[in-house]
Write a structure and sequence with these properties.
With about 190 residues, the protein is an alpha+beta fold. It folds into 2 domains: about 35 residues; about 120 residues, Immunoglobulin-like (Sandwich), CATH 2.60.40. The chain has 1 helix and 10 strands, in the order H-E-E-E-E-E-E-E-E-E-E. A 5-stranded mixed β-sheet has the order 1-8-5-4-2, with no helix packed on it. A 5-stranded antiparallel β-sheet has the order 3-10-9-6-7, with no helix packed on it. The relative contact order is 0.20. About 5% of the residues have low confidence.
Length: about 190
């Protein structure tokens, strides 16, 4: 009888240990630290701008069409910065780019960071601080999530939603939403 009780006790302990280890693996995803995903996107191209009709396509007596204001021929960089490391080593540059149609994208170039669970790209108003002091500040104030990180290496574009006021958003963070920590961040200047 004692042997049966001991056997059941050890079986229960073994099942509990396996459940805890399994839950820990699912939550922490430690294998992600050794899996790289490289994404190399080109900078979005200039969209076609409307052209005025040629003189031969106008009706006789019709006034010439007004020419729309000149727009840049290509994308222009409005701000940029270099990533510093926080929780994980992170290198590369970030640019805030205005496209000819007036929309904006955050462009990550030569990004190299660790892969991790639930990584996001955030535009924030937080100051970029070196060391552990900068790991947890990005969710303290205003931030705009631009979406999940597409890959932990390479060149990537993230659309800035229309209507976002960029006046006070001065930094970009690679944010781990699961553990509320910055992998790396860059100040936009």
């Amino acid at each position: 009888m004692v042997r049966v009780v001991r056997k059941r006790w050890w079986t229960g302990v073994a099942v509990l240990v396996l459940a805890v280890v399994g839950a820990g693996l699912v939550w922490f995803k430690p294998w992600a630290l050794w899996v790289d995903e490289t994404v190399n996107e080109a900078l979005p191209s200039a969209s076609a701008t409307p052209s005025s009709p040629s003189p031969s396509s106008r009706n006789p007596g019709e006034a010439p069409a007004t020419v729309p204001p000149a727009t840049p021929a290509g994308p222009t960089t409005e701000a940029q910065g270099t990533f510093i490391s926080h929780e994980h080593t992170t290198t590369g540059t970030v640019k805030l780019v205005r496209l000819p149609d007036g929309s904006r994208v955050v462009r990550l170039e030569n990004l190299d960071t660790s892969s991790g669970p639930d990584l996001r790209v955030w535009l924030t108003d937080a100051p970029v601080k070196e060391g552990r002091a900068g790991w947890h500040v990005f969710d303290d104030g205003t931030y705009v999530s631009l979406g999940k990180l597409k890959g932990n290496k390479g060149d990537q574009n993230y659309a800035v939603p229309a209507g976002v006021d960029l006046a006070d958003l001065t930094s970009v963070s690679i944010w781990c939403d699961r553990f509320d920590v910055s992998f790396g961040a860059a100040r936009l200047a």
